[in-house]
Write a structure and sequence with these properties.
Helix content is 37%, strand content 16%. By secondary structure, the chain is an alpha/beta fold. InterPro entries: Aminotransferase_I/II_large, AspAT/PAT-like, PyrdxlP-dep_Trfase, PyrdxlP-dep_Trfase_major.
Length: 383
């Protein structure tokens, strides 16, 4: 093949390799992938089925999202941020949240410009920065008091940036950024002229009473923030592949062009299902699902008490420090599968200095009952 510089630094996912090695053995704990057994909202299923039966979603148009969904997203964002987004000019529907990342990067960065992310971060964010031609600048997360915390000192030393690409709670660590973190982000954005690209896919899946703080509520960030949302995590609608982007009207005009020329349009059938979930008076089960994920998270930590597992502030996963146990992350992942019948992914492609020493344990698809022998499985793996 001819060389292609876009792929020079891109690292492959290991999730599919671990999943393939695990096969279909029902005894294996599936802690490698962000699927979930918590069902999607019944109203979303009913609306999607109705759209299929009636054929209402069988269209190429409108390219940037059905009005009913864009209006539902605008109402959702108004409740979360206090900001009124114009459904036509400031919201664009995408084929899942991660599919929104590349159009946003193409609209906000030039080749070679730095984009700030945390280490660890979601590999789908980090590798897309590289594919876009921008350059990742990784700011470490530190373990303090048993929790992940943003290294604000390192963040404050960022010399230049086109954008900061951040999640809260973040995959894979579950770090939840507090107001002081977002204020530090605002200072960097002000100093460098950067956009904040905020992946809000898990914003309401928080534990232990952590306050949910939208960066749009912090002085200086609302006019710089581009929000990426998704139906996959909070609403458990992974297969729908519906996400969105919302932000200032001027930059959204470019993002819409990039989105249209990338995927043309998200599934119309699924957009009706997403709109039904977002407007469900009962809340689409988001709070109940978050409580279930916390119960699973707490079970994992109780089972692995005494091992180097870092408590998450929210999300669907925790990280275990393989190097603290005298192993590489790849070795621990292999042992967990071969000896403990646990499928878990090494964080090789999820950072630079911090992430590669960790293995991720995802609890979104395994109920508390299945997690109750996690310690015994770890003991078998490490023995």
């Amino acid at each position: 093949m001819r060389p292609n510089s876009r792929f020079a630094q891109v690292q492959p996912f290991d999730i599919d390799k671990v999943a393939s090695a695990a096969g279909a053995d029902p005894d294996v704990l599936r802690l490698e992938n962000l699927d979930t057994d918590v069902p999607p909202p019944p109203v979303a299923v009913a609306a999607t089925r109705r759209s299929l039966e009636e054929g209402t979603g069988n269209s190429w148009l409108p390219f940037t999202g059905l009005p009913v969904l864009c209006e539902a997203i605008a109402a959702e964002l108004r409740a979360r941020t206090g900001i009124d987004y114009d459904p036509l000019r400031q919201i664009c529907v995408t084929s899942g949240g991660t599919s929104a990342v590349m159009p946003v990067l193409l609209a906000t960065t030039e080749p070679g410009e730095p984009v700030v992310l945390t280490d660890p971060t979601y590999a789908g964010l980090l590798q897309r920065v590289r594919l876009s031609g921008a350059r990742p600048h990784l700011v470490p997360l530190r373990v303090e008091g048993g929790l992940w915390r943003l290294d604000r000192e390192a963040l404050g030393q960022v010399p230049a940036a086109a954008a900061l690409l951040l999640m809260s709670p973040s995959m894979p660590s579950g770090v939840v950024l507090d107001r002081e973190d977002w204020e530090a982000v605002a200072r960097v954005c002000e100093r460098t002229g950067a956009y904040l690209i905020y992946d809000a896919a898990m914003e309401r899946i928080v534990f232990d009473g952590h306050p949910r703080i939208s960066p749009c509520q912090v002085d200086g960030l609302a006019e710089r923030t581009i929000i990426i949302g998704s139906m996959s995590k909070e609403y458990r609608m992974i297969g729908w592949r519906i996400g969105w982007v919302a932000g200032p009207a001027d930059i959204m005009s470019r993002i819409m062009v990039a989105t249209i020329y990338n995927t043309t349009v998200a599934s119309g059938y699924h957009q009706y299902g997403a709109a039904a979930a977002l407007t469900d008076p009962a809340g689409a089960g988001v709070a109940e699902a978050a409580a279930e994920y916390q119960a699973r998270h707490d079970t994992v930590l109780a089972q692995l008490d005494g091992l180097p597992v870092v408590r998450a502030g929210g999300g669907w996963s925790v990280l275990v420090d393989a190097e603290a146990m005298g192993l590489t992350a790849a070795d621990l992942s292999a042992r967990l599968l071969e000896r403990g019948r646990i499928a878990a992914t090494p964080m090789t492609a999820w950072g630079e200095d911090v992430a590669p020493r960790y293995v991720r344990l995802v609890y979104s698809a395994e109920p508390v009952e299945r997690l109750s022998d996690l310690r015994a499985r770890f003991t078998a793996a490490l023995g």
